[in-house]
Design goal:
The complex is a heterodimer of chains A (about 120) and B (about 400). Chain A has about 120 residues and is α+β, with helices and mostly antiparallel strands. Chain A has one domain: Beta Barrel (OB fold (Dihydrolipoamide Acetyltransferase, E2P)), CATH 2.40.50.100. Chain A contains 4 helices and 9 strands. In chain A, the strands form 2 sheets. In chain A, strands 1-2-3-9-8-5 form a 6-stranded antiparallel beta sheet. A 3-stranded antiparallel beta sheet of chain A has the order 4-6-7. Chain A is globular and about 35 Å long. Among the domains of chain B are: about 150 residues, 2-Layer Sandwich (Gyrase A, domain 2), CATH 3.30.1360; about 90 residues, Aminomethyltransferase beta-barrel domains (Elongation Factor Tu (Ef-tu), domain 3, Beta Barrel), CATH 2.40.30. Chain B has 9 helices and 20 strands. The radius of gyration of chain B is 21 Å and the shape is globular. Classes of the chains: A alpha+beta (about 120), B alpha+beta (about 400). At the A-B interface, helix 1, strand 4, strand 6 and strand 7 of A face helix 3 and helix 8 of B.
Chain lengths: ~120, ~400
């Protein structure tokens, strides 16, 4: 398993050819209280960096980008029902969706924890 | 992801183009000490939220008392025996008959009858005390000076800070510090004293709750704010919650819901035009754009669009600039403010629609990311006002 990050403030936990995606602590903190999420449809496919979802707080809306190309295998229905999970447990119960990777080589180019922390501190 | 946020920021219209030249209010050090997240707004560095967060700040204000720094707003005085009649010539509002100690809502209009700014003014006997929007204050002062500067003195008051204390516990809190404020009723004001500092306090605000707005000299603002925050019921509230509170209260935000392309009648602000200034009144007309505004009010000119309240039938926030369509898929208007109301607990919005779609109960479609979200045209406020009228 490897945990990676994007410059769009998503995290991606890769386990074999399936990955779980969510927004980072930094992202939820910048957004504030999350009140709405729009999740992709299971079975739909997206290219890397395509918009796959939306996350909204009272004050702002932001797109959720696909960190990696692939097919959506599962979405977090609990998050849809209780969007505040993105604030209270962004790296755990507040996950957004799972993806079956179509190009595992994309993983290597993503940020590791150290690189992301440095990036987030300056953005 | 975060880069998208500015595009959807409700205060985008007010963002200063040059962030290097931001001004600070007298409470800047206090905001930083409290851990506020600061953003550019109307040329000032202002707190958008404190560590408690927008949602909790909003709920706290409706339950207890919230302290807002609104020192970016413009304060000015009009002085002279002709000040009231001169000021009245700029607005469709009764200024002359406003009794001493009373406050009123006013609108500066262009010669086309569109809204330059909305404002509050008080007849203080010796002067007319005016509060205008921060983002508009430079233009407003130039406009007022240019139009009526020969008839009265127009005196900006940059030496004064402005605080708002809002919420059901505001009166208990403030009267503990400043005895007598409890005697004020909604839309009245008077001078008070706190530890040697003179305060001008009105019972009014921008949240729909009971509360006060307090004008205080810059030199005393920090101490006074700290004394308020030392009261158990009071928490600091940022601009984010200020926006969600005012929207639930059905109040317009200048730059979003009203601007120089909108008349008071299109905006549904007919209540702000007293009988004496309307057709048939003793001082009918005589303000910029009177033909257009009174024509729309009387029905002689066709009103094409109107501001309405909207509640979404699905739990999807509908924000400004979202297109509104009728059931036939024809564009009929646009949302000007919208968010998930923290107290209303549904997505609320206001926007402009064609007159045919403006009736209460009409269902229109908001097009959010290509999908139709049905919204019902609804009465405002979305959360009942709780003003203290005595």
């Amino acid at each position: 398993m490897s945990l990676k990050y994007t410059e769009e403030h998503e995290w991606i936990l890769v386990n074999g050819d399936v990955a779980t995606v969510g927004i980072t602590h930094h992202a939820q903190d910048a957004l504030g209280d999350v009140v709405f999420v729009e999740l992709p449809e299971v079975g739909s496919s997206f290219e890397q960096k395509a918009v796959a979802g939306v996350v909204e707080s009272v004050k702002a809306a932001a797109d959720v980008y696909m960190p990696i190309s692939g097919e959506i295998t599962e979405v977090n229905e609990a998050l849809r029902a209780d969007p505040a999970l993105a604030n209270t447990d962004p790296m755990g119960a507040g996950w957004f969706f799972k993806v079956k990777l179509s190009d595992a080589s994309q993983v290597d180019a993503l940020l590791d924890e150290t690189a992301y922390s440095a990036f987030a501190a300056s953005h | 992801m975060i880069s998208v946020m500015v595009l959807h920021c409700p205060w985008r219209n007010h963002l200063s183009a040059d962030t290097s030249a931001l001004l600070n209010t007298p409470l800047n050090a206090l905001h930083l000490e409290l851990g506020a997240r600061m953003v550019p707004f109307a040329g000032y560095s202002m707190p958008v939220q404190y560590p408690m967060g927008l949602m909790a700040e909003h709920i706290h204000t409706r339950a207890e008392a919230g302290l807002f720094d609104v020192s970016h707003m413009g304060q000015l005085r009009l002085v002279g025996t002709d000040a009231a009649s001169a000021f009245e010539s700029l607005m469709p509002v009764d200024v002359i008959d406003l009794p001493v100690g009373k406050q009123r809502y006013g609108l500066l209009l262009t010669d086309e009858g569109n809204i330059i700014d909305d404002l509050m003014f008080v007849n203080r006997g010796t002067d007319i005390f005016v509060i205008v929007n921060g983002a508009c204050k430079v233009n407003d002062i130039a406009h007022i000076q240019g139009r009526i500067g020969a008839k009265c003195q127009v005196i900006p008051m940059p030496e004064r800070a402005l605080l708002a204390l809002q919420g059901p516990k505001a009166v208990d809190t403030l009267s503990r510090m400043v005895s007598g404020v409890e005697k004020l009723v909604f839309m009245t004001g008077a001078s008070f004293n706190w530890q040697g500092a003179d305060l001008f306090i009105t019972r009014s605000g921008y949240t729909g709750e009971d509360g006060f707005e307090i004008s205080v000299h810059n030199d005393h603002a920090d101490l006074f704010a700290r004394a308020l925050l030392a009261q158990a019921e009071v928490k600091p509230i940022g601009l984010g919650a200020r926006n969600s509170l005012r929207l639930e209260a059905g109040l317009c935000l200048y730059g979003n819901d009203i601007d120089t392309s909108i008349t008071p009648i299109e905006a549904g602000l007919n209540w702000a035009i007293q009988k004496v200034r309307r057709t048939g009144g003793a001082r009918a007309g005589g303000f910029p754009g009177a033909d257009i505004v009174l024509g729309q009010l009387d029905g002689g000119r066709t009103l094409i669009r109107k501001r309405v309240g909207l509640i979404a039938q699905e739990r999807v926030p509908v924000r400004e600039h979202v297109e509104l369509q009728n059931m036939q898929g024809v564009k009929i208007g646009e949302v000007t403010s919208g968010l998930l109301g923290p107290t209303a607990n549904v997505p609320v919005a206001m926007g402009y629609v064609d007159l045919a779609s403006a009736g209460l109960g009409t269902v229109v479609n908001a097009i959010v990311r290509g999908k139709a979200v049905p919204m019902t045209v609804s009465a405002m406020p979305f959360v009942p006002n709780r003003y203290y009228r005595g």
